[in-house]
Design brief:
Belongs to the bacterial reverse transcriptase family. It is globular, with a radius of gyration of 20 Å. It starts with a helix and ends with a helix. Strands 6-7-5-8 form a 4-stranded antiparallel β-sheet. It has a 3-stranded antiparallel β-sheet with strand order 9-10-11. The protein has a two-stranded antiparallel ribbon with strand order 1-4. The longest helix has 23 residues, at 253-275. The protein is built from 10 helices and 11 strands. It has a single domain, classed as Alpha-Beta Plaits, CATH 3.30.70.270. With 278 residues, it is α+β, with helices and mostly antiparallel strands. 42% of the residues lie in helices and 21% in strands.
Amino acid sequence: MIKSLPNLYSFLHLTRAELNVILDDIGKYYKPVTIPKRKFGEDQIDNKGNIRYRELLVPKGSLKIAQQRINDLLQNIPVPDYMYGSIPGKNHILNAQNHLTQKFFLTIDLKKFFSNITHYQVHQMLHNNGFSYSTSHILTKLTTFQKSLPQGAPSSPVIANLVFLNTAKRLFEFGKSHEITYTNYLDDQSFSSQYSFKHLVPKILEAIREGEFFPSHNKIHYRTRSCEITGLIVKGHLLNLIPKMKKKVETNNFVKAYAKQIQHANIRFRSSTVLGHF
C-alpha cells in the first residue's frame, strides 16, 4: 500500500498544493442531496403513506475524482466470501442464495451504518492495511466529513466493508461454531440454520455492539421456514419476489425483468446442487 506522501500525490494525480486546497475547505466539495428511497424501481412508502427519503452527501469536482481513485485502490484489498455488498461480481441475489434450504433465519439491519463509522475507525483500518500513518491521515480526511463516513461518496461502501470486516469475521466464526450460515450485505446482516438458534440472538447482537455498530431495534427479525433477505423471499430451494412486487410483474417492466433474473438464479442454484458445486 501507499507509504509515502509523494507516492500518494502521484496516485491521486494531485500536487501537494492542489490537495491542500481541497482539504482546507472540503465542505465546499460536497453537495447535500435528498432522494426518495427506491425499491424495485418504485418509491418506498412509510406506514403513514409518505415517501421515504435518503439524505446524501455527494462529492464533486476533484474530490469526487480522488474518492473514485481511492475506491479503486481499496477494492484490491481481499474480503471474505461471505461479504456481498458493493463488491464487484457480487450482488444481493447471490447473498440471499446462501440461505436457501434453511429453516431458521435472523436478519439484522444496522442503524446509520455509514454515518456511525468514525474518522478514527477509517484511519485505523487504513493503517492496519499497510498505509503509513501520514498517508492514512490524508486518505481519512479525503473520505470522511465532519468526523464520519458520508453516504453518497464513491469510496464509502468499500471503506465501510473494510471497517466492518473484523466484526463480520467474528459473526462468521460464531455462526460457524453453531452451524449457522452468515452473510453480510453492507448494513444487512443475515443468518440462517437448519436448527433453531433464537437463544443465540442476544450473543449475536452483543458481538455487533462490541464492534461499535448498532442494530436497528425495529429491524431485527427472527423467522422460521421463510424470510426476506436483501429484498428477496427465501423459502426452501427458491428465491422469490416479495408479495407486493409479485402483483406488479405484468404491469411493471422493471419488476418483470427482475423476476427473470431471480428465475435464472433459481435455475443455476438447482443445477449447482445437483452437481454438488454449491
